[in-house]
Write a structure and sequence with these properties.
By secondary structure, the protein is α/β, with parallel strands linked by helices. Helices cover 29% and strands 24% of the residues. The protein has 14 helices and 17 strands. The chain has helices spanning 22-28, 45-57, 77-94, 116-128, 146-151, 166-181, 207-217, 252-268, 270-273, 280-289, 314-321, 335-344, 417-420, 441-444; strands at 2-9, 29-31, 60-68, 99-103, 133-138, 154-157, 187-193, 223-229, 243-249, 295-298, 327-333, 349-354, 366-382, 388-399, 402-407, 431-434, 450-453. The chain has an eight-stranded mixed β-sheet, sandwiched between helices. A six-stranded mixed β-sheet has the order 2-3-1-4-5-6, with helices on both faces. A hairpin with a 2-residue loop joins strand 14 and strand 15. Helix 2 packs across helix 6 and helix 3 packs parallel to helix 4 (116-128). The longest helix has 18 residues, at 77-94. It is globular, with a radius of gyration of 22 Å.
């Protein structure tokens, strides 16, 4: 048997100010065919899984392009079409193949393409024909479209948020696709639109119990796979929203009934799924009142993993104005400030302007008197599912008693080693502010005594009513028709 695997992925925030160009992919993940390293990178779960399983089975694996960009605004037409054609050319060169397994996202939007994954999968299907098995792994924050479902034999989304199960789902995808190739199973699919948009933090109930339940249903009584599409609120496309995706082995009635049941159960718990988001001052008050520490505050609105610039100053400004020290903040994307810090050198004291550079969603720049505490070239953080995440050149500065991590590559806080590699002792801090929505939790929850999700301004705002959707089909709880 001959297998092809590759990846092309990003998550698009259509409300974000910065476009996603070719350089965005080159900065994060770009490996031409056959050049992907041994370690898993984000979106390469199916490829790494294929390496493991193909070797065990004695199957031949052909590795194509692996490309992934940090979420931002719309992908440029040039970037999408260039990378798409590179991946498709790799596939054509690999023919004939028996199976294709791809690492995608599901919420990539480009100029002229509201459904990049659907477009890509349709083109893959046209190349390989109807007899070749095509599967893809998705991020749960996807826009599940008919074109995606119709063009693939199998789609599997990560179940965990934070996404700690990327490789596990990649292995699951490979094994099920291999079973289709070997004619051991015949998947049929059911999709139910929940007519809502929710985010499921699987670190706590009720989402934790719901995910445990759907996993207990899989591989029993003909149920092959169940995926929950949370959706991505910050992507204004027609198919935005929460959906349930079920595959059974040849039993359409069972697939339909189970998808409907799970969708109804999910709808019934929607009020309890969301996190609590106090405003900035209320969150700071709560953190200061907590006995002990550290208390981790999640700046969800400035999460680069959702398309934000990662340079907002709203929370940091209030901390400095309120003279709240004994704290750490990071990462803040500011290549100019990092350059200045490196020029000044470790131990230097200087006045510096940081953050607030990209748009009004970043707030105003902060002018601070600071000390350069630590500098490190090419810092690599432990990322999603322990994949290495480059942060570029990094500087740790102290401004008014707050340790601030400045970075040159825009990535969210995922591993505590972002701070500790720079000598910042998180356990000794009262407050730690992370630029992340939830992926920080897998690592930072090990040191945090309390976690608070903060309602701050930004490109990934939690104020749903402030977003103006024009293409999404509304109303869709909690979004009313009036938001369009």
């Amino acid at each position: 048997m001959r297998v092809f695997s590759g990846s092309l992925a990003t998550e698009t925030n259509t409300f974000a100010p910065m476009p996603t160009g070719l350089a965005s992919f080159q900065d994060m993940v770009y490996f031409p065919a056959g050049q992907h390293p041994k370690e898993m990178t984000i979106f390469s779960g199916p490829l790494v899984a294929a390496r493991l399983r193909a070797k065990e089975r004695g199957w031949e694996l052909v590795e194509g392009l692996v490309a992934g960009a940090q979420p931002a605004g719309k992908t440029t037409r040039q970037a999408y079409e260039t990378l798409r054609e590179e991946l498709l050319a790799d596939l054509r060169a690999a023919l004939p193949v028996d199976m294709v397994v791809l690492g995608l996202h599901g919420a990539m939007v480009a100029d002229g393409y509201d459904d990049c994954e659907g477009d890509l999968l349709q083109r893959v299907r046209a190349i390989v024909g109807t007899d070749v098995v095509v599967g893809a792994e998705l991020d749960p924050h996807n826009h599940l479209t008919p074109a995606m479902v119709d063009s693939a034999d199998l789609l599997i989304a990560y179940k965990e948020y934070p996404h700690t199960d990327i490789l596990e789902r990649g292995i699951e995808l490979f094994d099920l696709c291999a079973a289709i190739v070997e004619r051991k199973i015949r998947p049929v699919v059911a999709v139910v639109d929940c007519q809502m948009i929710v985010t499921m933090h699987t670190s706590r109930d009720p989402a934790r119990s719901f995910v445990d339940r759907i996993q207990s249903l899989e591989r029993r009584d003909g149920v092959l796979s169940i995926s929950i599409t949370h959706g991505f609120l910050w992507g204004d496309v027609a198919e935005m929203g929460t959906k349930v995706l079920v595959y059974t082995d040849g039993d359409q009635a069972k697939a339909d009934a189970l998808a409907r049941q799970l969708a109804d159960d999910l709808i019934g718990m929607r009020e309890r799924l969301g996190a609590r988001y106090p405003d900035i001052d209320a969150a700071l008050d709560e953190a200061l009142a907590f006995v002990g520490g550290p208390v981790v505050l999640a700046d969800s609105a400035d999460n680069p993993g959702g398309g934000a610039a990662c340079d907002s100053t709203f929370i940091l400004r209030r901390m400095i104005e309120r003279r709240i020290g004994d704290a750490a903040v990071g990462p803040m994307w500011d290549p100019v400030a990092v350059r200045i810090a490196f020029d000044a050198g470790e131990g230097a004291r200087l006045a510096m302007r940081i953050g607030g550079k990209i748009s009004p969603l970043s707030g105003d720049p902060l002018d601070v008197d600071c000390t350069v505490k630590k500098l490190q070239r090419d810092l690599v953080m432990s990322g999603m599912s322990n994949s290495p995440t480059p942060m570029g050149d990094c500087a740790l500065i102290d401004a008014a008693g707050v340790d601030i991590v400045l970075v040159t590559l825009r990535n969210q806080a995922m591993g505590t080693d972002l701070f500790t590699q720079l000598g910042c002792d998180l356990a000794a801090k009262k407050l730690v502010v992370v630029k992340s929505s939830q992926h920080f939790y897998a690592s930072f929850s090990k040191v945090a005594k309390q976690v608070i999700y903060v309602a701050a301004p930004g490109a990934v705002t939690t104020d749903h009513s402030s977003l103006r959707h024009h293409k999404a089909r509304l109303p869709k709880w909690p979004l009313g028709a009036g938001t369009a």
